[in-house]
Amino acid sequence: MTDPSTHNASRFERILAFMLLALVLLSVGTFVAIMVGTGQGMGSEDFATGIWPVVVMVPYIGLPLAIVLLITLMISSAVRRARESGREQPGR
């Protein structure tokens, strides 16, 4: 049976998790802004001026980076759990 005691995530894992959440929320927010702008009748020439080029590029960069952060977080968590389980078993 597993030990029901809780574990504390490392600072690195918490930072990764919050960065992941921030990137996903920012990317989804900019995607919604693009959809609203398109729904209001903005054309491709309107998206080429002002701050819109940055808004358009955020999902292209943010979502793949969020996937990389998610994979990094999963690997980090798996390594930590493996180390913890190795310490709990006296035979290892």
Plain-language structure description:
The protein has 92 residues and is mainly α. It has one domain (11-86). Helix content is 72%, strand content 0%. It contains 2 helices and no strands. It has helices at 11-39, 52-88. It is rod-shaped and about 65 Å long. The two termini are 18 Å apart. The mean pLDDT is 89.
Radius of gyration: 20 Å
Report the sheet with the most strands, covering strand number, pairing sense and barrel closure: none
**Number of structurally distinct domains:** 1
**Computed structural class:** mainly alpha
Given as residue ranges, the uncertain stretches (5+ residues, pLDDT < 50) are none
Keywords: Membrane, Transmembrane, Transmembrane helix
Transmembrane segments: 15-38, 50-75
Protein name: Multidrug ABC transporter ATPase
Organism: Mycetocola manganoxydans
